[in-house]
Design a protein that fits this description.
Elements (H helix, E strand, L loop, with lengths): L4 H19 L2 H7 L1 H6 L2 E7 L4 E4 L6 E3 L26 H8 L5 E4 L23 E3 L4 E3 L5 H11 L2 E5 L7 H12 L5 H8 L10 E4 L14 H18 L4 E5 L10 H12 L5 E8 L6 H5 L2 H20 L8 E9 L20 H16 L4 E7 L8 E3 L4 E3 L3 H10 L3 E3 L2 E3 L2 E4 L3 E4 L1 E8 L2 E8 L6 E7 L4 E11 L15 E7 L5 E6 L3 E9 L1
Parallel strand pairs: 1-21, 3-4, 3-12, 4-7, 7-8, 8-9, 9-10, 10-11, 11-12
Antiparallel strand pairs: 1-16, 2-15, 5-6, 13-14, 15-19, 17-18, 19-20, 20-25, 21-24, 22-23, 22-25
Helix pairs in contact: 6-7, 6-8, 8-9, 9-11, 11-12, 12-13
The protein binds alpha-L-arabinofuranose.
């Protein structure tokens, strides 16, 4: 007897549902239909072995970035005449918030701005400095914040300054003389000028960037990889002959659009510069344009993949060189940036992204990724520090801490020493771009017996009962737990309202086991001693 068409359609739909259920990774069911998943709690195990060392975590991965862009410097860290600013014009409330981030190195003056920045404009008496048209972001630049102000700020913050020279519209001599002005002890016209401007001793800045995003057509002075490689090589030689102790960072790829040969850019740049540089810089910004939480939360997979690819390109470039100098990766711009983007990118109040909880979780996974590649990623800079895609936000009167501030603060202040390779047994969900993605994303650091484990629970709705299993040691003493979370994945902070923040509690471990309940959409940092 023929089946009625409607019945067969229903039967087909049922069978298809059953099939897709069987094929779906365990925990993606939890997000789709909660009834069955709620009855069976999700569980995970993370195995920690203190001998499985990936590499030493370079403190320079906790860097930040200030650019002459919007209200990052002017109206952010620097506001002359503001009642809350010191005699130099540095805002004290901003400084207080920034100081708690443990910024280990600070990149300046850009970004795109650096590609037409002529450093001599920013020295000497402030009132006599020239105002210039600023073409990267469509404003005028007063130059009241220049080399001396930057280096004074870095000094106050006890952070390593990192200067990016202009290889867009600048010359080799500009770059060389900037190093001379800042670092030289010789008696020359440049160092006399520095003394005349109030600074007798050289600052001895170690980190110097050879231009910014030179692969991007949006860059002033954009070049082909070959032209950039040749140009940067001559700048590098002159800069290093001025001060042989400096470390040089070449502009690797920042342009990852489809059809762009970003691998080829890095390969060509390394061919030219491999005997002269210490780091290759790459940049990334991610966003949740499709409002797809789980895809967005998997973004660090891209970061992992690019890190691995660039590491391979570096290895390949160095394979034909006897006794090569080591070259590391500098992720010297990273962040979530997609809302305050596009046509509105010109003027004073731009790139003022307001962050929510899901952005903070993505930042935690990025930091995990840097730690998990500690052997090769030796520099990273959240872009930027204040107001412009930043963890600290101001108005005329006060400051608030954005959601992304909290994971950065916890990880940057606590994850040091050796990065450990973890084994995680955990439910997964299915990502369109990356296939199965574990709900838990983690990293660990061991410093003289003090263990820190950083864990993001990406699950939007469910806690995950997690056991940390220490393979070769025992936990000793109290366990400190810090958690970043908020009411909802879209929760944001603002002036006078902090929905997303860090809360702390303690726990007790049994010998080599520590049981944790990791709440949905949370970042948890566990800190405990081992013996
Ligand atoms: O950080 C904002 C901008 O992003 C920087 O100026 C540029 O380097 C990147 O494209």
């Amino acid at each position: 007897m023929p089946k009625s068409p409607s019945l067969s359609r229903r039967a087909f739909a049922k069978a298809a549902a059953a099939l897709s259920t069987a094929a779906a990774p365990l925990a993606s069911l939890a997000s789709a239909s909660s009834a069955s998943a709620q009855s069976a709690p999700l569980r995970a195990r993370i195995k920690v072995d203190t001998e499985r060392i990936i590499g030493q975590i370079d403190p320079l991965i906790y860097g930040n970035f200030i650019e002459h862009l919007g209200r990052c410097i002017d109206g952010g860290i620097f506001e002359e005449g503001h009642p809350n600013s010191d005699a130099n014009g540095f805002r004290k409330d901003v400084f207080a918030a920034v100081s708690k981030l443990n910024v280990t190195q600070l990149r300046w003056p850009g970004g795109n701005f650096s590609s037409n920045y002529h450093w001599r404009d920013g020295i000497g008496p402030r009132d006599q400095r020239p105002r210039r048209l600023e073409m990267a972001w469509g404003t005028t630049e007063t130059n009241r914040f220049g080399t001396h102000e930057f280096l004074q700020y870095a000094d106050m913050l006890k952070t390593e300054p990192y200067i990016c020279v202009n290889l867009g519209t600048g010359s080799w001599t500009d770059a060389q003389q900037w190093v001379e002005y800042v670092n030289s002890s010789a008696d020359t016209a440049m160092t006399r000028l520095r003394k005349q401007n109030g600074r007798a001793d050289p600052w001895k800045v170690k980190l110097w960037g050879l231009g910014n995003e030179m692969d991007g057509p949006w860059q002033m002075g954009h070049r082909s990889a070959d032209d950039y490689g040749k140009f940067a090589l001559e700048a590098a030689k002159l800069m290093r002959w001025t001060d042989p102790s400096i470390k040089l960072v070449a502009a690797g790829s920042s342009h990852f659009s489809q059809g762009i040969d970003w691998v080829g850019w890095n390969r060509t740049v390394l061919d030219h510069l491999k005997n002269h540089i210490d780091y290759l810089a790459i940049h990334t910004y991610v966003g949740n344009r499709d409002n797809d939480y789980y895809e967005f939360l998997a973004s660090s997979r891209d970061l992992d993949n690019r890190t691995k690819t660039v590491e391979g390109i570096i290895d390949a470039a160095l394979s034909s060189t006897p006794n090569p100098r080591k070259i590391y990766i500098a992720w010297d711009e990273y962040n979530v940036w997609y809302r305050a983007r596009g046509e509105k990118e010109r003027g004073r109040r731009i790139l003022e992204e307001i962050y929510n909880l899901e952005d903070a979780l993505v930042i935690a996974t990025f930091l995990n990724s840097f730690i998990n590649h500690a052997h090769i990623v030796k520099i990273a800079n959240m872009a930027q520090l204040v107001n412009v895609i930043a963890p600290v936000f101001t108005n005329d009167r006060e400051v608030f801490l954005q959601t992304i501030y909290y994971p950065l603060q916890l990880i940057a202040n606590n994850s040091r020493g050796a990065a450990l390779s973890l084994f995680t047994d955990c439910p997964t969900y299915s990502s369109k771009r990356f296939g199965p993605v574990q709900y838990l994303d983690s990293s660990a650091a061991l410093d003289n017996g003090a263990l820190v484990v950083n864990i993001v629970n990406r699950h939007r709705d469910q806690p995950i009962e997690t056991t940390l299993e220490l393979q070769d040691k025992r936990f000793t003493g109290p366990v400190e737990i810090s958690e970043v979370n908020g009411p909802d994945i879209k929760s944001e902070n603002t002036f006078g309202k902090t929905l997303v923040k860090t809360t702390t509690r303690t726990a007790t471990a049994e010998a080599n086991r520590l049981r944790l309940t990791l709440p949905p959409h949370s970042f948890t940092m566990v800190k405990v001693r081992t013996a």
